UniProtKB/TrEMBL annotation:
The active site is at C410 (nucleophile), C410. S-adenosyl-L-methionine binds at Q285, Y314, E335, D383. GO terms for molecular function: rRNA (uridine-C5-)-methyltransferase activity. This is 23S rRNA (Uracil(1939)-C(5))-methyltransferase RlmD. It comes from Lacticaseibacillus manihotivorans. InterPro entries: MeTrfase_TrmA_AS (IPR030390), NA-bd_OB-fold (IPR012340), SAM-dependent_MTases_sf (IPR029063), TRAM_dom (IPR002792), U5_MeTrfase_fam (IPR010280). It comes from the Bacteria. Pfam families: TRAM, tRNA_U5-meth_tr. One of its GO terms (biological process) is rRNA base methylation. CDD domains: AdoMet_MTases (cd02440).
Length: 452
């Protein structure tokens, strides 16, 4: 095997120069990169090599010799083992700079000359998540809720998740205690046995409505009536209690079939003055306070005058579409999850919006058809998942040539790739606005406007 500049279990003193997009400190040993877990730029640390590859190595920090002024005390040491909050040791203003810098770096690499504005952050960057998906496993013979340790499926027991709405944490513990009381077995991944796989909880930030979904390996859950009765009595905010069947050997959390045990089969919440129904299988942004900031950026960027046709691709339950419909002539949404499209249609009528239509389908297929049919959009909104736009989608944009493209992105790497592709059709972007939707984590959301 080729000789590497460092070897496994070696300890060396290094100075950290940068932070990777995953939040690991980067040091160089004669130009060879060392990724040091938990270390911050400017810090001098003792690094213990855990893995040495041909082109880089991983290390663990065993001693902090000189700390960064941006280092803060993490909320909980154990919590750091999970990867839920990989930036919790970095002061919040520095987290916001880190995100801006990440986008700048990716744009530079893609040779894009676009100004990246300072990240819009939160006043209180904890307790913001409106959704939790908590794995349930047996730990030492006891049904336990918590989170997986990084790069593993070993469950670390946790009661306070810090970044979730504290009411969600309380609801999870209440469900856990009832499952313990009625001796319901937790799921066992090794042999696909047991009953309870996950507890999924959503809470409306504005409505305070609570939705609990018990994800189970079977429909047959003992004492279900007792559990439902006790939960409804204990949680006055409970608006929806559901059972979701997932009996496949998979890392996907939710199965396709859901039964309502109590209340509605949806949750309601408000955003920018409109009410939205959200089904358990539908996407809904997890940081409601910052979602309003993000959507306002997108609405301002679209600069609608009232006579435009807007396409909202990857429209989910229609949150962006319906916010835009108030300022446009017509909005067409396209989304691949049928339940989300159903929600979007209901949401249009709940908010008395008559100029928005929603289609189920892959955005790349539907956009191609619209372009072939000669449909013209003045504004194209895109809010794709992390993998960004499909090449067929970008090609259809080149055919339709909307006047403006407003790109809401949750992954700056695919954003940079897609902007470069759209440039081929004569689009340019002047600036990018990151909005911090996920404090304490490395995830980056941003809005970019492209015009011809
Ligand atoms: C980041 S979410 C945005 C949803 C919505 N704009 C919002 O803010 O709530 C991306 C959405 O794209 C949907 N999706 C994923 N792949 C798709 C595809 N190929 N075509 C259409 N929709 C897709 C997902 O189901 C999800 O609802």
């Amino acid at each position: 095997m080729a000789k590497t500049p460092v070897v496994k279990n070696q300890e060396l003193t290094v100075t950290i120069e940068d932070l990777t997009y995953e939040g690991m400190g980067v040091a160089k040993v004669d130009g060879y990169p060392l990724f040091v877990d938990g270390a911050l730029p400017g810090e001098k640390v003792v690094a213990h090599i855990t893995k040495a590859e041909k082109k880089f190595a991983f290390a663990r920090m065993t001693e902090l010799l000189e700390a960064s002024p941006d280092r803060v005390e993490p909320k909980a040491k154990a919590y750091a083992q999970t990867g839920i909050a990989p930036l919790q040791h970095l002061a919040y203003p520095a987290q916001l700079k880190f995100k801006q810098h990440q986008v700048e770096t990716l744009f530079q690499k893609a040779k894009l000359d676009i100004e990246v504005k300072p990240t819009l952050g939160m006043d209180q960057p904890f307790g913001y998540r409106n959704k939790a998906q908590i794995p349930v496993r047996m730990v030492n013979g006891v049904l336990t809720t918590g989170f997986y340790k990084r790069r593993s499926h070993d469950l670390l027991p946790l009661e306070d998740f810090y970044i979730q709405d504290p009411e969600i944490d309380k609801a999870v513990l209440m469900v856990r205690d009832l499952l313990r009381k009625y001796q319901i077995p937790a799921y066992n991944e090794a042999d696909n046995s047991g009953v309870i796989r996950h507890i999924v909880v959503r809470r409306g930030y504005f409505s305070h409505q609570l939705m609990i979904v018990l994800v189970t390996n079977t429909w047959a859950v003992d004492h279900l009536e007792d559990i439902v009765k006790e939960l409804t009595e204990a949680l006055p905010e409970l608006a929806s209690l559901m059972l979701n069947l997932n009996n496949r050997k998979t890392n996907v959390i939710l199965g396709k079939k859901t039964r309502t045990l109590f209340g509605h089969d949806y949750l309601e919440d408000q955003l920018l003055g409109s009410t939205f129904r959200i089904s358990p299988l539908s996407f809904y942004q997890v940081n409601p306070q910052q979602t309003e900031v993000l959507y306002q950026q997108a609405i301002d960027a679209a600069d609608l005058k009232g006579n435009e046709t807007v396409i909202d691709a990857y429209s989910g339950i229609g949150t962006i579409s319906l916010s835009m419909a108030k300022h446009a002539k017509r909005v067409l949404g396209v989304e691949v999850v049928p339940e989300a499209v159903h929600d979007a249609k209901v949401n249009a009528s709940l908010n008395s919006i008559k100029n928005a239509e929603f289609v189920v389908g892959k955005a790349e297929d539907v956009m191609t058809k619209w372009a072939e049919d000669g449909l013209h959009a003045d504004v194209l909104m895109v809010d794709p998942p992390r993998k960004g736009l499909a090449p067929e989608f970008t090609a259809a944009v080149g055919k339709m040539l909307p006047d403006k493209v407003v790109y809401v992105s949750c992954n700056p790497a695919t954003l940079a790739r897609d902007i470069a592709a759209l440039q081929e059709f004569g689009y340019t972007a002047k600036s990018n606005q990151p909005v911090d939707m996920f404090p304490q984590t490395t995830s980056i959301e941003s809005v970019t406007v492209l015009t011809k």
